[in-house]
Amino acid sequence: MVLYDTQEACIGGLNEELIFSARLDNLGMSYCSIHGLINSLSSPSALENERSIRLVSLFDHEEIGSNTAQGADSNFLPAVIRRLSIIGSDSDDQTVYEQALAKSFLVSADMAHSVNPNYASKYEPDHKPEMNKGTVIKVNANARYATNSPGIVLFQEVARRGHVPLQLFVVRNDSSCGSTIGPMLAAALGARTLDLGNAQLSMHSIRETGGVYDVDYGTKLFESFFEHFSELENMIIVD
Question: Are 233 and 191 in contact, with CB atoms under 8 Å apart?
């Protein structure tokens, strides 16, 4: 039996601080990234000193492995980046695509699990993501997420400039965790990558629960990333 929620999304909670909707995973982060990109271009002079190409790529079939023509394991994103990388470049340079990837930063944005009050003991004391407390950076030593230290430093500064809170989540060593398309794309592209997402409950149910304020936080985080990445990326030095 397959169940499907026919109700429209709605706002609820004691202070109307929660969103109840189907498919928050991953329409939530898709919404934040698209609107963050749009907002970053609101000023007529937004691209005057821009050295990077601002790009959002949305994929199908993440929950079934991404190995489809529309999935992240296809050649869609590499093909788009390859075509974009030759714009304004010397056509005789055979490494322009690889140079573009080396200068790029990939944000794998997929909703995160909020701490479940029924299973709070399953979380590390200082790593309990909460709804409406800001977007969650996801870390895993087994590379189930692609986050690394330079990426965390970068996004902490992005969040500071965007005036939004940020959370950090590391799964307990004796617990397993899901994964995202982040490690897959990081391996395929060789680009610097970070995994993040807004916290939610009831992930993969027919009606999920998320935080109202996190939508605004996530959108502003992406807006700040697009606006400041070209400046900040030269300041993150790995020695």
Answer: no
